[in-house]
Amino acid sequence: MADQKGSFSWLQSLNISDIFVWKDHGEYGAVAAIVIGILVPILFSALFLGKKREKIRGVPVEVGGEAGYAVRNARKTELVEVPWEGAPTMAHLFQQACKKYTHNRFLGRRKLIEKEFVQSGDGSGRRYEKLHLGKYEWETYGEVFARVSNFASGLLKLGHNTDSRVAIFADTCAEWLIALQGCFRQNVTVVTIYASLGEDALIHSLNETEVSTLICDSSQLKKLDAIRSKLTSIENIIYFEDDSKQDTFSGEDASNWTIASFSEVEKLGKESPVELSMPSKNSIAVIMYTSGSTGLPKGVMITHGNIVATTAAVMPVIPNLGSHDVYLAYLPLAHVFEMAAESVMLAAGVAIGYGSPLTLTDTSSKIKEGTKGDASVLKPTLLTAVPAIIDRIRDGVLKKVGKKGGLVKKLFHFAYNRRLAAVKGSFLGAWGLEKLVWDTIVFKQIRTALGGQLRFMLCGGAPLSGDSQHFINICMGAPIGQGYGLTETFAGAAFSEWDDYSVGRVGPPLPCGYIKLVSWEEGGYLTTDKPMPRGEIVVGGFSVTAGYFKNPEKTEEVFKVDEKGMRWFYTGDIGQFHPDGCLEIIDRKKDIVKLQHGEYISLGKVEAALSSCDYVDNIMVHADPFHNYSVALVVASHQPLKKWAEQAGISYNDFPDLCNKPETVTEVMQSISKVAKAAKLNKSEIPAKIKLLPDPWTPESGLVTAALKIKREQLKNKFKEDLQKLYA
């Protein structure tokens, strides 16, 4: 499982249905259902009438640049650039936050009590690591600031040239953030690299940015040793210590590299402080390599001003954000979503407890039996997630409820449907006493899996389905702030507000920028469309980054500066604005293909619709302009398909054999067609043929990004022969 660290690929092997332990409430649950289901609607029926007034969240605005339909956040007439005066950079903001919250808890990590290896029960001889972890141990803002200052000095004393760059190639942890902030205090640009990145992309990223100092996990030392002859600029290696003994370089192999542990660098800086060199708002803080869906990753140059602007804009969106909150950090800090989230947390004085995807819950793959998972111990009030995580939580709960059957199943679905009606606004009464009772007897058990204290979730990285959003609203009792942003805008574009329970939208523009729709006539999306203006989404404002590193052609293609000096980024996404000023993503320019008879197919739209099919774990729709139909590669969902085979009396040797059977393909095709018709897809949009694939697509395989978005070109190349057979 070690090779899955540092990305979201842990989801492929995590059986989230196992994290929920449901207690049957028996008679009092049934009595509550009767009382609530019959008496409460009668008592409060008078309150159910009436229509809620629509809140205006975004308003049209006149801006420069290409003609289009532009909207700003309704709460701010002027764009927000900083959270408070005197904090133009992350180095300044961090220093001031640490002074303001000196004695508050800041960074927490769990103590490793015991590590053991257990044998797999399948006879393969594989051994799995299991951890017994203790409580969270905390450092205050003041203590962390001292460590950051020491590391900043130690980095230079080690021999790092401030005119060169530092790269961080490691899993998310407290030292990751400390290293980042230490570099900022010496105006050193940080290159972020996913811990799961393959050798070719790693070599490309390090050599292109001419990194001289590399910070990594001790577990990465062997990987670096294997490629050291191909790394042209590395001079220093700083590694994070852990509790296991790691092989390091031999003296001969590392003769031209200075190697030191993180604690050694801190000690060096403490003993020999170095004068600060604080950055300006236009200084490049980070070169963040995207996990883009095509080709080698592109390095996005992010300024300090970009990070601070997004931080300032998001802080007011999270209700009552402050030092009473606890945030569980486990997503990759090399991803813009997590870096933006942790920047917001530190600015607001929130306690950040670090966890791991493999230790997140009580039954996560690395948690030793009898040991609590990170969420159970930390009890976070705030959590980030990508849609793939939320979808699997939803599926896991439903499977667990289905297995219980009987009263538990009936009670759950009755309660869920009552709460769903309230969330959708069809009546108001269920927000009071009824909500309290349902939360107590039904949903409380589900919420304990994530600590039981969750009050707000931040979701980003990909579109979130409406069903999954409602499910979290109800079962976890927490509103979801669904964000829209890109690495090129440092995650800062749009963000749904806590009191907006509508689905399928990403909210109004964040107050740090504007969002403009520009007509795309070729695709048939115009700003004059009725009832809502449509077009390519263009983001302008303080969060728009400086462009791509050493790639001026691509930078000039998608970044523009208007006559007023404002910088705009052309996203390639297609959106529409609702009357209340909220944005909805409806398409993507690159995903639209014209078939032989002239019909247009939006691949992303079709994939989003068909992904809700029970048999589909992942899907890529492919359309060839020389044919009049589309086809699809479908990663089969194991449990539903095996259950069908059992009920249908289908015998098979293994899962790949099941996927190859004609009757299995027919069953999945029929299910896909039902989902497509329910989603009102046109006949030409429904794949005419499919290829069932037994193995999941993971970031390590290079077939999906770290946020689990498909890499279309890589999939087309890998499954070229299968696609050709589907068109034969």
TrEMBL record:
<keyword id="KW-1133">Transmembrane helix</keyword>
<dbReference type="InterPro" id="IPR042099">
    <property type="entry name" value="ANL_N_sf"/>
</dbReference>
<feature type="domain" description="AMP-dependent synthetase/ligase">
    <location>
        <begin position="131"/>
        <end position="549"/>
    </location>
</feature>
<feature type="transmembrane region" description="Helical">
    <location>
        <begin position="28"/>
        <end position="49"/>
    </location>
</feature>
<dbReference type="GO" id="GO:0004467">
    <property type="term" value="F:long-chain fatty acid-CoA ligase activity"/>
</dbReference>
<keyword id="KW-0812">Transmembrane</keyword>
<keyword id="KW-0472">Membrane</keyword>
<dbReference type="InterPro" id="IPR000873">
    <property type="entry name" value="AMP-dep_synth/lig_dom"/>
</dbReference>
<dbReference type="GO" id="GO:0016020">
    <property type="term" value="C:membrane"/>
</dbReference>
<dbReference type="Pfam" id="PF00501">
    <property type="entry name" value="AMP-binding"/>
</dbReference>
<dbReference type="InterPro" id="IPR020845">
    <property type="entry name" value="AMP-binding_CS"/>
</dbReference>
<protein>
    <recommendedName>
        <fullName>AMP-dependent synthetase/ligase domain-containing protein</fullName>
    </recommendedName>
</protein>
<dbReference type="GO" id="GO:0005783">
    <property type="term" value="C:endoplasmic reticulum"/>
</dbReference>
